[in-house]
Amino acid sequence: MSNPPPSRFWPSWSGLVDDAATFPPGNAALDDAVEAYAAREGEWYADLVGSLVVKDTDIGSVGRALPLSVVVTGGAGAVAGALKLVERRDHRLKGLEIALRDPDDLAGNARRVVAAVDAARGEGLLDEEAPVFVELPQGEVTWGWQAAADEVASAELRLKFRTGGVEAHLFPTAAELTTWVDAALDRETPFKCTAGLHNAVRHRDDETGFEHHGFLNVLLATRALFDGATTSEAVELLESRDGARLAERADGIDLAGARRWFTSFGSCSVREPLDDLLALGLLQETP
C-alpha cells in the first residue's frame, strides 16, 4: 500500500487525477494501462490517483479487479448493462460518467439519465454513495443547458466539464469555463473535468498551439468563486501563467475545501501532474 508523504498539502491532492491513459491523446493499450495502474499502487504518490477510467465497452477486457470510473457510451439505456458487467468482473466502481446526447432536449436527456440511475440504485446495481457525473455540452450556457444542470443537481448527481481534446475548438475559453464552474457552485453541485488538464499551470502547447487550462488554475478559480469572487476575478486566475504566484496563493488558502467541488480530472498522463506539483513545491517526494 502507498504511504502518503508528510505534507500538509496532501489532502488537497488525494484522488485528484483519474487515470485516463487509454483516451486521447495518450491512447494507451488497455492492458498496458491496467498494468501501469496496478504497478503504481506501491508508489509513494499512489494516493494522487483515483480510479482508472475505462469505456463501458472495455470493462470485460480489464484483466484485474481495479477501482474503475466507467464512461457509459450508449446513453441512459446502457447504464444497467455497464453496472452488471462491473459487478460480474468484481471491479470496484468509483464513478459512473455519462454525456448528454440530445442537444435539442438537454433537460429531457438529463431526466432519462436520472431515471436510469434511480432504477439501477433500486435494483442494487449502483451504491447510493457512488458518484455519477453527467457531462453537459460545451459552449454557451443556454436555457436548456441550465435546465439540464438543474435536473442533475436536484437528483444529487454531479457535473462533468470537457476542458480540452485533440482539436482546438474543444478547449473552452476562460470565460466559458468560469461560467460552467459558477453554475455548478450556484447549484452546490460537485464537478470533475476531463481532457487538457495535464499540467498545473495554463500554457500553450508548443506542438499543437492549443491553449491549455491548468488544473491549479481551475482549483484556485473554484475556491475564489466559492468565496465570492467575481467572474472577472475567476477568469483572471484561469488565465494566469505565473506558476510561482499561483503556488504561493495555493499555500495560503484552503484547497481541500475547493476539492469538495472540483473533485478530480481525467488525464492520460499521471506523471505530468505529479511532476508539476513537485516542481511548484506543492508536494514533497518521499523515499
How much of the sequence lies in strands comes to: 15-25%
Rg over CA atoms = 18 Å
Number of beta-strand segments: 10
Q: What order do the SSEs take from the amino end to the carboxyl end, as H and E? A: HEHEEHEHEHEHEEEHHHHEH
Query: By CATH's scheme, which homologous superfamily applies?
Result: Aldolase class I
Oligomer: single chain
Shape: globular
Mean pLDDT: 94
What's the helix count? 11
Tell me the CATH topology. TIM Barrel
Number of domains: 1
Proper CATH architecture: Alpha-Beta Barrel
Gap from first CA to last CA = 14 Å
Please mark out the parts with pLDDT under 50 across 5 or more consecutive residues, or reply none.
1-9
Q: Report the biggest beta sheet as strand number plus sense, adding barrel if it closes.
A: 8 strands, parallel, barrel
Explain how this protein is built:
It contains 11 helices and 10 strands. The radius of gyration is 18 Å and the shape is globular. The longest helix has 17 residues, at 106-122. The protein has a single domain (10-279), classed as Alpha-Beta Barrel (TIM Barrel). The chain is of the alpha/beta class. The protein has an 8-stranded parallel beta barrel with strand order 1-2-3-4-5-6-7-10, surrounded by 6 helices.
Blueprint of the fold:
Blueprint: H1 10-13, E1 17-19, H2 30-40, E2 49-55, E3 67-72, H3 79-88, E4 92-99, H4 106-122, E5 132-135, H5 143-154, E6 158-162, H6 174-186, E7 191-194, E8 203-204, E9 211-212, H7 215-226, H8 231-239, H9 243-251, H10 255-258, E10 262-267, H11 271-279
Parallel strand pairs: 1-2, 1-10, 2-3, 3-4, 4-5, 5-6, 6-7, 7-10
Antiparallel strand pairs: 8-9
Helix pairs in contact: 4-5, 6-7, 6-8, 7-8
